[in-house]
Design a protein that fits this description.
single chain; about 280 residues; alpha+beta; six-stranded antiparallel β-sheet; 6 helices; 15 strands; about 25% helix
Amino acid sequence: MADIRVWVDGELVGDRPSISALDHGVTVGDGVFETCKVVDGEVFALQRHHDRLDRSLKGLGLPTADRDLLDQGIAAVLADGLDFGRVRYSVTAGAGPLGSERLDDRLTYIVLAGPVPRPPATTAICTVPWTRNERSAVAGLKTTSYAENVVALAHAKERGGTEAIFANTRGELCEGTGSNIFVVVDGEILSPPVESGLLPGITRDLVLEWGRDAGLPVREATMPLEVLQSCDEVFITSSTRDVQAVSRVDDREVPAPGPLTRRMAEVFKERAAGE
């Protein structure tokens, strides 16, 4: 943890105590966050992440973020450079009571940065017995209430996976704990739609956008969770994984990377480097 840089409300704080015990982000998980990839000290797709942060804040009924303040925090934690890693920044509702009711307090701003290992070319994923609620009040929002994901990811890791995959309450393929999922069926690259209850990832959106630009057969489609047992290829996307081929789903081996996954990864790498 010593290599994690910490900035809170305008100040680099290191490992000093810096958040009130009464902060609503601590007591009830009342806040939102973003995680961005950092390459050679540069933050990838930062404005897209800022935009999604504001959508999440709006969804929680909180004011939009002070982007200038966030950018100051990001610059502070990256002042010493970072070859490959991530920036995670959070905005919480600030100090509040011990229950769910809010006070009219100022927001709390937190920015963290640190190195992460580069992802391997392929990975294994596991489905979990719990569901995403596509009708939840926080569906599609990137909130700090992550305990559900912690439990699911631990379940997957006990079974040799690096990511857990949820269905929604209708039994449809939805998402991972911190990633989006794509499958290849009958020569098409398919991703569950936003209506499934997933969090629309920045990398997911770019895969859909850049894949179409490159002429690849990529689109959104509603699919049952069971598609993972018959599809030709699988890959997951996230800010630090980019496009990562899946070689195993539960006990099923999957060719990885398949031809369409490989091509999508190439397109993403080329476009990301260019932009």
